[in-house]
Amino acid sequence: MEAWLLDTPAGGLHVARWRPSPAPGAGSPIVLLHDSLGCVALWRDFPAQLAEATGREVIAYDRLGYGRSAPFPGPQPTSFIADEAAGAFAAVRERLGLARFVLLGHSVGGGMAAYAAGHHGDGCEALITVAAQAFTEPRTLAGIREAEQALAEPGGLSRLARYHGDKAEWALRSWVDNWHSEAFRHWRLDDALARVRCPTLAIHGEQDEYGSTEQAARIAALTAGPAETRIFSGCGHVPHRECPERLIAAVAAFLEALRHPR
Known about the structure:
Elements: E1 2-6, E2 13-18, E3 30-33, H1 46-54, E4 58-61, H2 80-83, H3 88-96, E5 101-106, H4 108-119, E6 124-130, H5 138-151, H6 156-164, H7 168-179, H8 190-194, E7 200-205, H9 214-222, E8 227-232, H10 239-242, H11 244-259
Parallel strand pairs: 3-4, 3-5, 5-6, 6-7, 7-8
Antiparallel strand pairs: 1-2, 2-4
GO molecular function, one term: hydrolase activity
Protein name: Alpha/beta hydrolase
Keywords: Hydrolase
């Protein structure tokens, strides 16, 4: 893995890249977009394993306000999911010269990936969402409140601070407060999905504590391009930690099928 700080007008973005050995194949890079409390470090060894399994370069970055990236300049707006496509992701694409790419987003990163796939339709070859939300469910809000209470226990916030430093409280409040705001009461990903023309794979854990499998069904139903779903039994909200082998196998098979259609 190689990592560096990418300068942008809004602040520095921590970017990391994994290359398969001996060298990347013909496929375009896979760009990972993390979840609401995530960062590059919390992908753990998933990017390296994905690079080896697919023969593709894998790129990830910490959004502003998370991980090793610069603090976000002020409160996170309720438009933050839509904003990523023309904001940090656009900066990463431009600076890394990504003419063609695959997007893989986990949880809220899946929603951001959907927006980016439509906004950057000239370069996005495929969209993969993992445990993404396409609409707000009672389960989504209840799961967030439960996590908030767990992080309020002694030592809870310090666990976040290991990854986000003094931005940990901001990251937590951005997650909890935005999703419980009036703006998110009737939030939907529908408009973004309608602009996705590339092939889409929507993956969801059957036991996901933040959303039912209807989330993946809605994503697949509303994209304008060809789409399919994969539901993982016995898996919750974080497949790249709970069942990484199944996730990597599903992603690799999906991308291989795109390169060699029947």
